[in-house]
Write a structure and sequence with these properties.
single chain; Penicillin-binding protein 2a (Domain 2); Beta-lactamase; six-stranded mixed sheet; five-stranded antiparallel sheet; about 35% helix; about 15% strand
Length: about 600
């Protein structure tokens, strides 16, 4: 029996039809890619098309009165696409740029390592003058072109540590944020660092055709893929430029710092750290060289003593101890304690005054034994079951002044200082200790460490009679964006307002009383409340310290001054603070003879 044969002839036409359809699809796709969709052509013609990044104008930085502190100045980066560098007159190119052949070879090698097809920076930050000289010859050198960007300029050479600086991104910056590409700039410190996202803006892009003579022609696809850059936000600080400049003049050739705060807002009016430097030194191609010099300077001008320097607060801390003793109920403003002067035990007095003394006189004369006795009475009080319970009460109120921690606002390089926990003494003394063991705390010595910033904030809190706003630089953004609520949230101290009023009376007597330690720094017609301090320094001469505020009844400025290795607070810190207060409140110094000791004419 013969089987039926399968007819394959009809299937042949099906296969041919399928093949034909596939070919047609591929041809249509190819037509779309090569003719209709020019974006693919952009990739294939990379050697004739140039992608130029349009850098946005970085936001400006202004002071509280609208004075410009930081603005942009145009510079140019010379870019290179190694694959497009053909038949280059190397000698002529090096002559035009005033560079050596070795420098040329080194930069080209670096560019090729980055990419042969993508642009990279051959020579950064070329000035307008250099640009004018080189640009007219650039058509002779294919593969090279200029890209415009800006650097920072500081019309007032002040507040370098506050404003910070910008520099080229590093590997970590590139890994952390895809916004940046090699050669971009980023805020490295200060306000420039903290508000980088607000200041930087958004990049734009321009795609253009370039002819064989390295000349830019028309926009690719009539600019369809071009984007415009978006400028960064302008920032307004609470800083007072005139006060900042004056403070830097007062601290010239001294080591230390000044911090001034507006008590009603927490805005920082001035932050001086000395030695300091001109912020323009860290701009342009000289940035690296100057940074190295500053870094290696034995006086550490890059170190911000106002936020990172830590010191025993000395007698300035007696205000806090007095307030805590009042709040505990073991004393009132009329309670008195004896003082035997230099014979006092276990803590001696360093000032001559009547005995016994109450709170106001104790503050006026900075009586060590008074504050030790008040401290001891609190630890012996029946209100507390043990020394540790009394210490816990003391500790909680101390840290409520903003001591022992950072404020977590826009202040970079801030350290916490130290307010020791009871566990520290448990470990040190095997769990057995009392007021006598830690008596140095009663006069602001021992393990207590504060920053000048914290000291100024402590003054603001006392001036406000029990509250403060965390210290910060920002005042507002140009577009009305609200500032972080952490900076506008009031922090209240759990001490009765009447106790602050009592302490303020004593602080006024520091300037106005016969035995006041700052009586020689009194300001005519301005009532200042303050406290001098002399902080022991195991590494050399004692530090001169002051903290206070003015006017006493309605503070507009709170201030702390630290002059390292300068001795008594009344000799240096108090007079400097007095001048700063008068300058801010009055606008000028009534008796200019007071300045001559501090400012070199």
């Amino acid at each position: 029996m013969i089987k039926n044969r399968v007819n394959y002839s009809s299937r042949k036409y099906v296969v041919i039809a399928i093949f034909f359809i596939v070919v047609m699809i591929l041809l249509v796709k190819l037509f779309m890619i090569q003719i209709v969709d020019q974006s693919y052509k952009a990739s294939s013609d990379n050697n004739t098309i140039r992608h130029i990044t349009l850098y946005p104008a970085r936001g400006g930085i202004f002071d509280r009165d609208g004075n410009i502190l930081v603005y942009n100045e145009a510079i140019y980066d010379l870019m290179v696409v190694p694959k497009q560098v053909k038949k280059l007159d190397t000698l002529g190119f090096c002559s035009a740029l005033n560079i050596s052949r070795e420098f040329f070879n080194e930069r080209m090698k670096k560019a090729r390592r980055y990419s042969s097809f993508s642009p990279s920076i051959f020579m950064p930050q070329i000035t307008k003058e250099e640009y004018g000289r080189i640009a007219e010859k650039l058509h002779q050198f294919p593969g090279f072109y200029f890209q415009t960007r800006s650097i920072r300029n500081y019309p007032h050479p002040v507040a370098a540590h506050v404003l910070g600086n910008i520099g080229e991104v590093n590997k970590k910056d590139l890994e952390r944020d895809s916004y940046y590409k090699a050669g971009d700039y980023i805020g490295k410190s200060g306000i420039e660092y903290f508000y980088e996202n607000e200041l930087r803006g958004e990049k734009g892009l321009k795609i253009i055709f370039v002819d064989v003579h390295n000349r830019e022609k028309e926009h690719f696809m009539d600019g369809r893929f071009d984007t415009l850059p978006t400028a960064g936000k302008d920032i307004y600080l609470g800083l007072d430029t005139e006060l900042q400049s004056y403070g830097e003049a007062l601290m010239k050739n001294r080591i230390g710092s000044i911090v001034a705060i507006e008590p009603s807002t927490g805005q920082i009016l001035a932050m001086v750290t000395s030695p300091y430097y001109d912020p323009n030194e860290l701009v342009g191609r000289v940035r690296g060289e100057n940074y190295t010099k500053l870094l290696n300077d034995s006086l550490k001008p890059l170190f911000n003593r106002a936020t990172s320097g830590i010191y025993p607060p000395g007698s300035t801390f007696k205000m806090v101890n007095g307030l805590i003793a009042l709040q505990s109920g073991v004393i009132n403003s009329s309670s008195t304690f004896p003082c035997d002067g230099t014979e006092s035990q276990p803590i001696r007095c360093t000032h001559y005054h009547n005995s016994p003394v109450a709170l106001h006189e104790a503050i006026e004369n900075s009586c060590n034994p008074y504050f030790w006795e008040a401290f001891r009475e609190m630890f012996a009080s029946h209100s507390f079951a043990s020394s540790k319970e009394a210490y816990s009460f003391w500790y909680d109120l101390v840290v409520s002044f903003g001591l022992g921690s950072t404020y977590k606002t826009d202040i970079p390089a801030e350290v916490s200082g130290n307010i020791p926990k009871s566990s520290f003494y448990d470990k040190m003394y095997g769990g057995v200790w009392n007021a006598l063991t830690i008596r140095s705390l009663s006069i602001g010595q021992g393990e207590i460490l504060v920053t000048p910033l914290q000291l100024a904030n402590m003054a603001a809190a006392i001036g406000n009679e029990g509250f403060y706003y965390p210290p910060h630089f920002i005042k507002s953004f140009s577009d009305g964006t609200p500032i972080d609520s952490i900076m506008t949230t009031k922090r209240v101290i759990d001490i009765k307002q009447e106790h602050f009023k009592d302490v303020k009376i004593g602080m006024c007597r520091v300037f106005e009383g016969e035995g006041g330690t700052a009586r020689f720094s009194k300001i005519d017609s301005i009532q200042v409340a303050g406290k001098t301090g002399t902080a022991e320094n195991p590494h050399g001469d004692d530090h001169s310290m002051f903290m206070g505020f003015a006017p006493a009844d309605n503070p507009q400025i709170a201030i702390a001054v630290v002059v390292e290795n300068a001795g008594f607070g009344s000799q240096w810190a108090a007079p400097i603070a007095s001048l700063m207060i008068e300058k801010y409140l009055r606008g000028y110094i009534k008796n200019t003879n007071k300045e001559k000791r501090f400012i070199e004419k």
